[in-house]
Design brief:
Layout lengths: L6 H24 L3 E4 L5 E9 L3 E6 L4 E5 L5 H13 L8 E17 L2 E16 L8 E10 L6 H5 L4 E3 L2 E9 L8 E5 L3 E8 L12 E3 L1 E11 L2 E7 L3 H4 L4
Antiparallel strand pairs: 1-2, 2-3, 3-4, 5-6, 6-10, 6-11, 7-9, 7-13, 8-9, 11-12, 13-14
Length: 248
């Protein structure tokens, strides 16, 4: 029995073959073999499979891989490698070790009527260690410092500093641009300051409602986030309840 393939099936088979051929072409285009020349004019045919600012790894047509310093190549090939790196950035496994310490920046005592107020400015000294296996440039450290205002102080003094109200807490927020961090290296940065106050009512006065004459603000925690080229990549929070229940 002589069975003929219907025309419609032959057309579909031809279309499928064309699509597979196009797919193979696109894949090959992503890893194109080309000629690379060194500074002395010696040429090899290979494709670029990995590169850093200093080294390039090539795969030759027989599958063998070789690695050489970028400076080894011709100027045209160095430009090609630089452009290839811009569009073939490796995925980064972001890992960090972040430590922070609270420090006092200043202390000032003022008399506000019958109340003696001690103002203290605090900041956090932050150390960021890069464990991501690649050098990271363009990191930003964003921070939020929380406090509860309890002292009988002039609120305008700290509200004028850009502190905002979030629920029952006053919050200082900001960011610091970090220097480039090589792998296994660290950089330090300081947050902006948060003012706290302690008030003491003059001994010749008492509060009518029986409140304590000695009051003090509480620092209620720190929230840090790291962003790389606009993408959030890491965060760490203190154990304070204010931070645990907060929204960024």
């Amino acid at each position: 029995m002589n069975t003929k393939t219907p025309i419609i099936w032959r057309a579909r088979a031809a279309l499928l073959t064309a699509l597979l051929s196009l797919t193979a072409t696109l894949v090959m285009g992503e890893s194109e073999f080309r000629e690379f020349a060194n500074s002395e004019g010696k040429v090899i045919k290979a494709r670029l499979v990995a590169a850093t600012a200093d080294t390039a790894k090539l795969q030759m047509e027989n599958g063998r891989e070789v690695e050489a310093g970028v400076a080894y190549f011709s100027k045209a090939d160095q430009d090609y490698i630089a452009e290839w790196r811009k569009t073939n950035k490796p995925a980064i496994d972001y890992q960090f070790e972040v430590d922070y310490t609270k420090k006092r920046a200043s202390r000032e005592v003022r008399n506000e009527g019958p109340v003696e107020v001690t103002y203290e400015k605090w900041f956090y000294d932050v150390e960021v260690e890069n464990l991501s296996k690649v050098e990271l440039d363009g990191l930003e450290l964003h921070f939020k410092i929380y406090k509860t205002a309890k002292a009988d102080a002039n609120e305008a003094a700290y509200r004028a500093e850009g502190i905002v109200l979030e629920g029952p807490f006053l919050v200082r927020k900001g960011k610091v641009d970090l220097k480039p961090i090589p792998h296994l290296k660290s950089v330090k940065a300081e947050t902006e300051t948060m003012t706290t106050s302690k008030s003491q009512l003059d001994a010749n006065y008492i509060y009518i409602d029986g409140e304590d004459s000695n009051k003090k603000d509480d620092l209620d925690g720190l929230w840090l986030k790291l962003f790389h080229n606009g993408k959030e990549v890491y965060e760490v929070k203190s154990s304070h309840a204010a931070v645990k229940n907060a929204k960024w």
